[in-house]
Amino acid sequence: MAAYSTDPIIAIATAPGRGGIGVVRISGQDLSALVGQLFGVALTPRHAHYLPFNDTHGQAIDAGIALFFKGPHSYTGEDVLELQGHGGPAVLRRLLEHCLRSGKELGLRHAEPGEFTQRAFLNERIDLAQAEAVADLIDASSEAAARSAMASLAGVFSTHVNALSDRIVHLRMLVEATLDFPEEEIDFLEKYQAREALAQIQNDLHALTRQAQQGMILREGLHVVLAGQPNVGKSSLLNALAGDDIAIVTPIAGTTRDKVTQQIHIQGVPIHIVDTAGLRDTDDAVESIGIARTWAEIEKANVIIHLQDARTHDDELDSAITKRLPARTPVLKVFNKIDLLDAADPAVRHTGSRATHAPVDGRDGLEPIAISAKTGAGLDALRQTLLDLAGWNPGAQSPWLARARHLHALQQADEHLAQAAEHASHNDRVLDLFAEELRLAHDSLSSITGQFTSDDLLGEIFSSFCIGK
Ligand SMILES: Nc1nc2c(c(=O)[nH]1)N(C=O)[C@@H](CNc1ccc(C(=O)N[C@@H](CCC(=O)O)C(=O)O)cc1)CN2
Ligand SMILES: Nc1nc2c(ncn2[C@@H]2O[C@H](COP(=O)(O)OP(=O)(O)OP(=O)(O)O)[C@@H](O)[C@H]2O)c(=O)[nH]1
Ligand SMILES: [K+]
């Protein structure tokens, strides 16, 4: 779906299933003929027309609101026609089929995922970062993420990126002008304080990158796997963090057979938690499959919580598990059931938070945390540690949502600027190299808003949208 096709397109814009109202949306370069065919009258742009929606035999499919936007003053920049009907799946399907038949000669076809928004991008109604923000706004799972996605959609992120781009272009223009007068090259860097200007740009790019990192955490969140021996309280911990009975809790070891996934939010940051089958040797075929799945989940985790019974922590079986955990993933040891510890038991202090004298897991430098899934003791410390592991900085506002793609582009731009700075630190006729690195830095930044973007990348971005968007 990469190249821009000019066929008129149609899709149901509202979520599948029953709803109070459902919308069928059509976009095309000139929809006046289709409007005439459907309603027998022209529609005043941006006026709500209450009309019968009849099929070709004059049979009523629905009575609803027709809304016409004359291009370019529409979402896509083309003519847009919306049929807002009653939100039942059968009604909307009939409406869609009827429109497809009526628009057959015009080449009306079903829209690909994201194709409306892709047209909005290709017709320059929005830039690429804004188009991505449309999908992120729809997908936002917390209010914080939705607020940030809306800021991106409103162009806050793009404006910052463009401002930096402009400063790079300006500096490059000065260099390029000097390149025509070789005798001035030596003076150039001093004359325009080019090194200082570059350092300022680098500085601001770093600040932007830090904010983008926060924005990315808000979007992607953290994937946490709860692993450990049977019966240590993994399901109880999931339920306690979720504040709900998600997973089955019983005193019987080996209760959880398959993974149970739940998304929770800590300060608006999405944390995806996977409860897994307890790890042990077993002859039970079903349990074995569950345990194999546990290891598969462990491989995919951003963070592994190795949950243990505080009374027996780091016993032989726990040590065996520790040895098998992937070295690249941070492992947080959490000692559960501290409510069962004898108050006099020196094993773990009853601080209700971190078990300060418990052996530190040297590999990741993470201190074990003592909790009780039953009483809730220590859970705040655990939540805070998860936020730390996500890289979340609660002090820093996350002004917009960002994607890995954006962060990558910012880092690439930074590398080119560093190269430029390197060239500028020598004085021997390297202005052309300096200029070239500025150009490359500019290209990297431009890829965020989509000035220079391959059809492949566009296809990849828009195909992940939902249908009708
Ligand atoms: N019914 C309905 N609701 C919707 C949408 C839609 O397409 N239909 N949207 C779709 O995602 C969002 C709104 N986005 C829109 C963005 C631009 C324009 C538009 O007509 N823009 C014109 C005029 C701007 C103006 O008058 O200020 C333009 O940009 O020229 C319409 C909707 C959310 N709600
Ligand atoms: N006293 C006390 N009991 C707990 C605590 N956490 C869990 N339990 C109990 O320990 C038992 C096992 O809990 P689960 O949450 O099912 O343990 P699990 O690790 O998911 O077990 P498997 O499904 O076998 O892997 C249940 O009887 C829980 O009520 C705790 O903090 N304190
Ligand atoms: K369980």
In short:
With 469 residues, this protein is an alpha/beta fold. The chain has helices at residues 32-39, 89-102, 115-122, 128-139, 143-153, 156-179, 185-191, 194-220, 234-242, 285-300, 316-324, 379-390, 404-424, 431-449, 455-463; strands at residues 9-12, 19-28, 49-54, 60-69, 79-87, 109-110, 222-228, 260-266, 269-275, 303-309, 331-336, 369-370.
Outline the fold blueprint.
Layout: E1 9-12, E2 19-28, H1 32-39, E3 49-54, E4 60-69, E5 79-87, H2 89-102, E6 109-110, H3 115-122, H4 128-139, H5 143-153, H6 156-179, H7 185-191, H8 194-220, E7 222-228, H9 234-242, E8 260-266, E9 269-275, H10 285-300, E10 303-309, H11 316-324, E11 331-336, E12 369-370, H12 379-390, H13 404-424, H14 431-449, H15 455-463
Parallel strand pairs: 1-6, 7-9, 7-10, 10-11, 11-12
Antiparallel strand pairs: 1-2, 2-5, 3-4, 4-5, 8-9
Helix pairs in contact: 4-5, 6-8, 6-14, 8-13, 13-14
The structure holds the ligand Nc1nc2c(c(=O)[nH]1)N(C=O)[C@@H](CNc1ccc(C(=O)N[C@@H](CCC(=O)O)C(=O)O)cc1)CN2, guanosine-5'-triphosphate and potassium ion.
Rough shape?
Answer: flat
- What ligands are attached or bound here? the ligand Nc1nc2c(c(=O)[nH]1)N(C=O)[C@@H](CNc1ccc(C(=O)N[C@@H](CCC(=O)O)C(=O)O)cc1)CN2, guanosine-5'-triphosphate, potassium ion
| Spatial strand order of the main sheet | 3-4-5-2-1-6
The CATH H-level homologous superfamily of the largest domain: P-loop containing nucleotide triphosphate hydrolases
* β-strand number: 12
> What is the beta-strand fraction?
15-25%
Termini separation: 14 Å
Question: DSSP helix count?
Answer: 15
Major sheet? 6 strands, mixed
Number of domains: 3
Look at the helices and sheets and give the structural class: alpha/beta
What is the gyration radius calculated from CA atoms? 29 Å
Q: Which CATH architecture of the largest domain?
A: 3-Layer(aba) Sandwich
Instruction: Give the % helix.
Output: 40-55%
State the low-pLDDT regions, or none: 348-362
Instruction: Please write the string of helix (H) and strand (E) elements.
Output: EEHEEEHEHHHHHHEHEEHEHEEHHHH
What is the overall pLDDT average? 90
Function: Exhibits a very high intrinsic GTPase hydrolysis rate. Involved in the addition of a carboxymethylaminomethyl (cmnm) group at the wobble position (U34) of certain tRNAs, forming tRNA-cmnm(5)s(2)U34.
Keywords: Cytoplasm, GTP-binding, Hydrolase, Magnesium, Metal-binding, Nucleotide-binding, Potassium, tRNA processing
Pfam families: MMR_HSR1 (PF01926), MnmE_helical (PF12631), TrmE_N (PF10396)
GO molecular function: GTP binding; GTPase activity; metal ion binding
